[in-house]
Amino acid sequence: MPADMMCQQQYIVVKALENGVTIIGLTRGKDTRFHHTEKLDRGEVMLAQFTEHTSAIKIRGKARLYTEHGVVDTFDD
Question: Can you list the domains of the chain with their CATH numbers?
Fold first, then answer.
Protein backbone atom coordinates (compact mmCIF):
# COMPACT_ATOMS: atom_id res chain seq x y z
CA MET A 1 0.00 0.00 0.00
CA PRO A 2 1.43 3.46 -0.90
CA ALA A 3 2.58 5.62 2.03
CA ASP A 4 0.07 8.38 1.23
CA MET A 5 -2.80 5.90 1.54
CA MET A 6 -1.44 4.49 4.80
CA CYS A 7 -1.28 7.91 6.48
CA GLN A 8 -4.85 8.71 5.40
CA GLN A 9 -6.17 5.68 7.28
CA GLN A 10 -4.80 6.67 10.69
CA TYR A 11 -7.41 8.27 12.93
CA ILE A 12 -7.57 9.26 16.57
CA VAL A 13 -10.54 10.27 18.68
CA VAL A 14 -10.01 13.04 21.23
CA LYS A 15 -12.52 13.41 24.06
CA ALA A 16 -12.22 16.57 26.17
CA LEU A 17 -12.38 15.94 29.92
CA GLU A 18 -12.37 19.66 30.76
CA ASN A 19 -13.29 22.92 29.05
CA GLY A 20 -10.72 24.55 26.79
CA VAL A 21 -8.81 21.51 25.49
CA THR A 22 -6.73 22.64 22.50
CA ILE A 23 -5.89 20.40 19.56
CA ILE A 24 -3.13 21.67 17.26
CA GLY A 25 -2.36 20.09 13.87
CA LEU A 26 1.29 20.18 12.77
CA THR A 27 2.42 20.03 9.14
CA ARG A 28 4.63 17.58 7.31
CA GLY A 29 7.66 18.58 5.32
CA LYS A 30 10.97 20.32 5.73
CA ASP A 31 9.65 22.74 8.39
CA THR A 32 7.10 21.64 10.98
CA ARG A 33 4.47 24.34 11.51
CA PHE A 34 1.07 24.77 13.12
CA HIS A 35 -1.65 24.62 10.49
CA HIS A 36 -4.91 24.09 12.37
CA THR A 37 -6.24 24.65 15.89
CA GLU A 38 -9.47 23.49 17.52
CA LYS A 39 -10.84 24.07 21.02
CA LEU A 40 -13.06 21.51 22.73
CA ASP A 41 -15.17 21.84 25.84
CA ARG A 42 -15.82 19.06 28.35
CA GLY A 43 -17.59 16.12 26.74
CA GLU A 44 -16.93 17.22 23.17
CA VAL A 45 -15.30 14.71 20.86
CA MET A 46 -13.21 15.24 17.75
CA LEU A 47 -12.18 12.64 15.20
CA ALA A 48 -8.79 13.57 13.73
CA GLN A 49 -7.02 12.05 10.74
CA PHE A 50 -3.36 12.02 9.81
CA THR A 51 -3.04 13.13 6.18
CA GLU A 52 -0.44 14.12 3.64
CA HIS A 53 -0.46 17.56 5.32
CA THR A 54 -0.76 16.58 9.00
CA SER A 55 2.10 14.64 10.56
CA ALA A 56 1.46 15.30 14.25
CA ILE A 57 -1.21 16.50 16.64
CA LYS A 58 -0.45 18.35 19.88
CA ILE A 59 -3.05 18.36 22.66
CA ARG A 60 -3.20 20.76 25.62
CA GLY A 61 -5.54 20.12 28.54
CA LYS A 62 -7.19 17.05 30.05
CA ALA A 63 -8.32 14.70 27.31
CA ARG A 64 -8.61 11.02 26.51
CA LEU A 65 -7.30 9.77 23.15
CA TYR A 66 -8.57 6.63 21.49
CA THR A 67 -6.15 5.26 18.90
CA GLU A 68 -5.46 2.00 17.12
CA HIS A 69 -2.71 1.53 19.74
CA GLY A 70 -5.04 1.89 22.72
CA VAL A 71 -6.36 4.60 25.04
CA VAL A 72 -4.08 7.41 26.23
CA ASP A 73 -4.80 10.13 28.80
CA THR A 74 -3.06 13.49 28.66
CA PHE A 75 -2.79 13.62 32.45
CA ASP A 76 -1.47 11.53 35.33
CA ASP A 77 -3.88 10.12 37.92
Answer: 3-73 (2.60.40.50)
